[in-house]
Every structure is written in structure tokens, then in C-alpha cells.
């Protein structure tokens, strides 16, 4: 089964990271891949390292018509069995044809952006329900997986306080403003790993709140396991999500987690059993939960082990790849059968 992927919304975040992992994993299982993307240095380097075929195109206003033509030529030449569109802009521009077209939801994108798609795949139960309520009863659930690469802990010898780690794209949905406010109530140091349009705004907020000397903005990192190994608590204050790669990485590492009850954020975790889960936008509750894990390391250890067991039982690479292969194969067969009926 030959699969193409289209991701042209730009940026570096969870969707780009997971697409790269999935293409690598499906190719390793004998399914040829080709990723069409806009310029993205970390994603391109990853695919070069793993020999995943990819084409970088410019979908800016002036270049878009020529890039759409190039994309169509690639599709006509390689004749994929399926094309997966990642995020909204990709869904609007996915090329139609005899191949299966799939829209992959990792957030509450407008369903109309995926009307060119034969099938919708959401990475959390809430997103599948969102798609169904939006008129797509074909929506299917396939979660994410992560890569468990061994990394030695990052040196934190210069930090004399408990170390908190947060990883995500720097945008309003992730709730980093709430985390910075919570930090004013804590005697802790914070690492924030990620890139995005809010970096300068968040840096300015840290200065205004008087916590800038206890916050480090690390930018894009490919060594998140090493950051997790060094940190004491993983904090994820997101307002809404799909299935977060960052939360999965923290769970896989058995790291104590504080997160929120936001839509789809902590759907696979349980308060007091595998994480501490607080209301969205509640800086006081967030600070109290973090302080509790700092003060009760045995509780954090037990919660971390429980989260790790959930990851191992539900989110393994083999299980997720098997779901993708089975779902695509069945949908391709169904589309071919429907086409034959129309032609008879």
C-alpha cells in the first residue's frame, strides 16, 4: 500500500512530529511513503535520516499554483493508494482521484476543510465525536505513538530548585500564560520546550511577573526524553488538544504529570491514579498540584508508573501502525467497490 502525506500548514509541533514518525514506521513495515510539505528543517532532517521520500514545496500566495501543479504531477506519477491530509490547509488542497483521501484531525479544525476527504481520522475520542457531530459519521479513532529513544539526562546542575518541564507549540491553546502565573506561587524552575508565535509575548509576561530568572525558553528540541529525564514534574496546562505527543512522552517516561481537564487533553489519564488533573485556566489549582508532587515524591512516582502502564498498553508503535494499515486498507477496498458499482 503506497501512502502519500500532505502537510502544508507550516510550523513545528505535534502534527509535524507525529507525521514524520508515522511515515518512518509505515515505510519500515513495507508500505512506501512520500511526504509533501512546506519547509521545516527538523522534519526534513528526520526524514533524510530515516530515508523517507519527501518533497518540499512553497505554498505561499504567489507560488501556490505552481506547487499544486507539482503536487499533482507527483501524485499522477507515483499513483498512491491513499493520501493523508494533516491539518486544515492540507485538507482544503488535497488532490482528488481514484486514490483514497483522508483528513487527519489532531485538533478541532473546521470539518468543512476536509470535505474533499473520503475518510476522517481523529486522534482522540472527543475529536472523533466532534467530526461525527459535524456531519462525518465515517470518522475513526487512531491515536498517536512516540519514539522511545534513550537519552542521558540534560545537565541541570545550575538549577537549585525543583525543575518543571512543559513541551508544546507556543500558541494560545497550550495555556503557557496560566503556567507562568502559577509559577509566581511556586519555588521552582521551569523549562519550556517549543516554538511558536507567542514566544516574545510569553517572555515579556515572565518579565512582568518577576519569574524570568526561573524560566528558560528552550526552543525546538529533538531530545525531549533527555529533558524529561532531568525534570522533576511534567506540566501540561493546555486548554484543548487531540492526543498530545508531549503527554505521551511524559507517560512513557513515567514522569509525574500535572495537566488539565480541557477538551481531549487528559482523556487517557485519571485524576489521582495516573496524573493530577486540574480545571482549565486555574493557576491556583495548577500551582497546588505541582507543589503537591514536589512535596510528595512517592505519590509522583506511583502516578508516573501508572501513566507508563497506560502508555505501554494502548499507545505502542505496533498497535497504532496496525490500526492505520487496517483502516486504510478497508477504506481503499470500500472506495474501489463503490466505484465499481457506479461503473456497472
Automatic annotation (TrEMBL):
Keywords: Glycosyltransferase, Transferase
Glycosyltransferase subfamily 4-like N-terminal domain ranges (all copies): 13-148
Molecular-function annotations in GO: glycosyltransferase activity
SUPFAM superfamilies from the UniProt entry: UDP-Glycosyltransferase/glycogen phosphorylase
Keyword Transferase found: yes
Protein name in the entry: Glycosyltransferase involved in cell wall bisynthesis
Organism field: Consotaella salsifontis
Amino acid at each position: 500500500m503506497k501512502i502519500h502525506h500532505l502537510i502544508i500548514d507550516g510550523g513545528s509541533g505535534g502534527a509535524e512530529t507525529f507525521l514524520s514518525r508515522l511515515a518512518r514506521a509505515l515505510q519500515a513495515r513495507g508500505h512506501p511513503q512520500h511526504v509533501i510539505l512546506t519547509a521545516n528543517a527538523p522534519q526534513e532532517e528526520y526524514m533524510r535520516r530515516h530515508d523517507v521520500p519527501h518533497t518540499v514545496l512553497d505554498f505561499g500566495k504567489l507560488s501556490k499554483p505552481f506547487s499544486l501543479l507539482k503536487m499533482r504531477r507527483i501524485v499522477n506519477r507515483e499513483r498512491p493508494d491513499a493520501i493523508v491530509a494533516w491539518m486544515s490547509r492540507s485538507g482544503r488542497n488535497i488532490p482528488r482521484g481514484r486514490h483514497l483521501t483522508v483528513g487527519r484531525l489532531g485538533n478541532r479544525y473546521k470539518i468543512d476543510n476536509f470535505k474533499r476527504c473520503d475518510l476522517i481520522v481523529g486522534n482522540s475520542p472527543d475529536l472523533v465525536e466532534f467530526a461525527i457531530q459535524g456531519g462525518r459519521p465515517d470518522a475513526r479513532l487512531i491515536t498517536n505513538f512516540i519514539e522511545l529513544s534513550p537519552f542521558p539526562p540534560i545537565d541541570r546542575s545550575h538549577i537549585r530548585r525543583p525543575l518543571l518541564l512543559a513541551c508544546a507549540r507556543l500558541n494560545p491553546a497550550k495555556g503557557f500564560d496560566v503556567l507562568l502565573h502559577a509559577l509566581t506561587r511556586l519555588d521552582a524552575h521551569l523549562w519550556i520546550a517549543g516554538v511558536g508565535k507567542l514566544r516574545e509575548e510569553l517572555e515579556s509576561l515572565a518579565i512582568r511577573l518577576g519569574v524570568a530568572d526561573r524560566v528558560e525558553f528552550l526552543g525546538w528540541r529533538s531530545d525531549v526524553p533527555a529533558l524529561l529525564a532531568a525534570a522533576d514534574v511534567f506540566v501540561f496546562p493546555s486548554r484543548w488538544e487531540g492526543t498530545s505527543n508531549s503527554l505521551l512522552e511524559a507517560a512513557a517516561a513515567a514522569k509525574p504529570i500535572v495537566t488539565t481537564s480541557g477538551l481531549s487533553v487528559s482523556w487517557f489519564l485519571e485524576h489521582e491514579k495516573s496524573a493530577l488533573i486540574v480545571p482549565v485556566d486555574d493557576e491556583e489549582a495548577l500551582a497546588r498540584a505541582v507543589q503537591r508532587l514536589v512535596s510528595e515524591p512517592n505519590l509522583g512516582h506511583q502516578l508516573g508508573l501508572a501513566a507508563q502502564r497506560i502508555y505501554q498498553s494502548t499507545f505502542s508503535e505496533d498497535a497504532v501502525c496496525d490500526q492505520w494499515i487496517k483502516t486504510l486498507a478497508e477504506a481503499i477496498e470500500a472506495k474501489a467497490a463503490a466505484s465499481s458499482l457506479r461503473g456497472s
